[in-house]
Amino acid sequence: MVGAGCCQTHGLASASVPSAYQQLALTDLGTPLRDVTFVVLDLETTGGAPDGDGITEIGAVKVRGGEQVGEFHTLVNPNAPIPPYITVLTGITEAMVAPAPRTRDVLPTLLEFLHGAVLVAHNAPFDTGFLKAACHLHGYPWPAPRVLDTAMLARRLLTRDEVPNHKLATLAAYLRTATQPTHRALDDARTTVEVLHFLIGRLGSHKVFTLEETAEFVKAISPEQRRKRHLAEGLPDAPGVYIFRDRDNRPLYVGTSSSISTRVRSYFTAAETRKRMSEMLHMAERVEAVTCAHALEAEVRELRLIAAHKPPYNRRSKYPERVSWLKLTAEAYPRLSIVSALRPDGATYLGPFGSRRVAEAAAAAAHEALPLRQCTLALSTRTTTPACALAELGRCPAPCEHRITTQEYALRAAGPFVAAVAGDPGPVVESLLARIATLADATRYEEAAQVRTRMAALLRAAVRMQRLAAFTTIGELAAARPGPTGGWEIAVVRHGRLVAAGASAPGTHPRRTLEAMMATAETVVPGPGPTPCASAEESERLLAWLERPDVRLVEASHGWEFPAGGAARFGELLAKVDAARSAADPLGGR
């Protein structure tokens, strides 16, 4: 291990390393990869955005021709506190970096180490973003080296059958690298070197042997893309939905765009690098276009087509019916149950949740804050049942043994949950925040983070449900926004479902268009719950459109209102939780 703040080379001084750019000037054949000097770099940071500081450790390995020729490693004083979760992730403490040099003092040596080399990193935009910001802040010109991203290269070379994802840890496990990533800069850089050498070996099977060919290979147009470019011909330059179909007319992929022709053409350019899209194009035989009045209608049609046909190459929105609800049962001593459907049975429901796992987290939060029973027995108000271990541990008020009356149970347990779902979740949130503070004071940070995550799941579901319920109870609503070329884009919504979409021509009164739309709009019969006539995703797309500053509410069958003390008032708290969660994994899953 090279000591902190050291730069070490083996048999080759950095100043004498041949420049890749000089070699390019000598030959038109390209620079053989064996002759390219690579500097494989990794940074550890405090988890914030690139602002010029915030770097806590730099590790870099210089390689050429498969051999290591130098290493650079140093801790860096980030000029900012290191959050506890970053310390847990990396093992780097404030005491470790206190005597380390500042970023401005490290940059000259690092830039010299990078001189003339190709910069390599796993998810390179992260590392280059911090280095560019540091150079800008401290007055050093960014040398703009050629950059090779091993994550992007792995996506082109490794199939889904080989690795489930392209994170550095996943690739290291697959390749059984000698060095494993540890969220320490030099270890991760050494691991990336092994990944780079493996990927260079794979490039040979694709007849790629030079640096220039590698750059083109990462963004190359496949022969399949070239052969099927004609599928993008003749499509309308208008908002709408496009459907790739195979020879049996089965939908393969559904997408939407404000310009169908422009979007479909992009599938046949170097900008399209997704492996699954290459597979889809191999099977595609034609593209069907469905023009729409405006982009909002296109988005809704896309959702409905994906839900109806479940195209194999769409990942999102395929199974809107696969949701979970957290149900507070309608009985003398209610309990929480996770169910797959909402029914008009008098029970209180919270949701919909996108997965059972999130619903379980919300239920765990409720159990943490409220004395709700967790057993599944049907309890009687006349006869008792032996209590379980939770009662002995003080985690349950033991309604099974009638230690608590139904009235007191409703007041202490069931009532606050109902209030949190339909109105004010404040008491529940305050109880959970107190629990988090207690755990943090006892330095039980992992448990505190778990409670925080569960609280966010419960609170986010309450925010979502109250927002949806306020919107979907409106029997009919009409809204409009100015069109991009004049006129108005108009939408009619009934109980959270788009039932008509249209556009009035410039110079004509939009009321005529709206009246015609009203007369022909789809009739809907609402059901129970916050999503009575459409999927939650469709209603939320409509909500997002209605909340745009340029959208005007034309008319509504009745008022649109939210609880004054509702869950939405905790938006700032949720934002802080999300920020903490993002900062806990600053490498973005590398």
Structure, explained:
GO terms for molecular function: exonuclease activity. Residues 237-315 form the GIY-YIG domain. It comes from Luedemannella helvata. This is DEDD exonuclease domain-containing protein. Keywords: Exonuclease, Hydrolase, Nuclease. By secondary structure, the chain is of the alpha+beta class. The protein is 41% helix and 17% strand. The chain contains 21 helices and 16 strands. The protein has helices spanning 20-26, 84-90, 94-97, 103-114, 124-138, 150-157, 168-175, 185-205, 211-218, 223-227, 260-266, 275-283, 295-309, 356-369, 389-392, 406-422, 426-441, 445-472, 510-520, 536-546, 571-584, and strands at 6-9, 37-45, 55-64, 67-75, 118-121, 147-149, 240-245, 251-257, 286-291, 324-328, 336-339, 348-353, 477-482, 488-494, 497-504, 552-556. The strands form four sheets. It has a six-stranded mixed β-sheet with strand order 1-4-3-2-5-6, sandwiched between helices. Strands 15-14-13-16 form a four-stranded antiparallel β-sheet, with helices on both faces. Strands 8-7-9 form a three-stranded antiparallel β-sheet. A hairpin with a 5-residue loop joins strand 7 and strand 8 (251-257). Helix 6 runs parallel beside helix 8 and helix 7 (168-175) packs across helix 8 (185-205). The longest helix has 28 residues, at 445-472. 37% of the residues are buried. The model is unreliable at 1-28 (pLDDT under 50).
